[in-house]
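Postdoc handover notes: sequence design on the structure in folder B. Input tokens:
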């Protein structure tokens, strides 16, 4: 069974405040006697479900084309948390078996919001949690939240901790209706040069 955990991109899809929304421009139309319909897209790579590139927060960081592909495909564990805002600590995963996992997808109340609605509050990662997952040899952390850091963070400690510990991240995944458990994740970033991130078509496949 497949679960599509990707937010749909439309001009109404919620964006980070001030970021570039998704727009589609018609370049050619069959209705105007052209052979094809041809469109041009304009949007931030951080709209909807996406993978941050290390370059997003580090001038010397990697662009999407060179991010480690193997991190975005493989066994993933979906875990639901009840915290609605603030940093996620190990206490928020009490009773959850994290050992033996490779990729962690964190399901919160944000998954219940429609694609067009901005999350006024959302849980985010903590450096403590990232270091613990790195110790367990995790390769990826995905959230349904719009950021792995707090909304008002300027230093972005969790973004930097991910890179320093060899992890990658997904943001804005949609986990509504996905039962907790283990799956195969496929969420490959596009081979984009000079960009700070990439949209992904993220799916989970039952094992």
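Designed sequence:
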């Amino acid at each position: 069974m497949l679960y599509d955990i990707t937010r749909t991109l439309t001009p109404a899809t919620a964006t980070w405040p001030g970021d570039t929304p998704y727009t589609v421009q018609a370049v050619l139309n069959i209705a105007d006697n052209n052979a094809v319909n041809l469109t041009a897209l304009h949007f931030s790579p951080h709209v909807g479900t996406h993978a941050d590139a290390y370059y997003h927060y580090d001038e010397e960081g990697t662009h999407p084309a060179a991010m480690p592909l193997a991190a975005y495909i493989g066994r993933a564990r979906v875990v639901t948390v009840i915290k609605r805002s603030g940093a996620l600590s190990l206490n928020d995963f009490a009773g959850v078996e994290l050992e033996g996992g490779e990729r962690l997808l964190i399901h919160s109340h944000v998954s219940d919001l429609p694609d067009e609605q901005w999350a006024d509050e959302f849980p985010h990662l903590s450096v403590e949690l990232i270091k613990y997952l790195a110790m367990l040899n995790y390769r990826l952390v995905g959230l349904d939240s719009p950021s792995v850091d707090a909304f008002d963070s300027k230093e972005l400690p969790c973004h930097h901790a991910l890179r320093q510990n060899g992890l990658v991240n997904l943001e804005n995944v949609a986990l509504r209706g996905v039962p907790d458990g283990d799956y195969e994740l496929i969420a490959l970033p596009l081979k984009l040069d000079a960009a700070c991130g990439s949209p992904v078509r993220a799916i989970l496949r039952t094992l």
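Context for whoever picks this up: The chain has two helices and 13 strands. Don't rerun without checking with the PI first.
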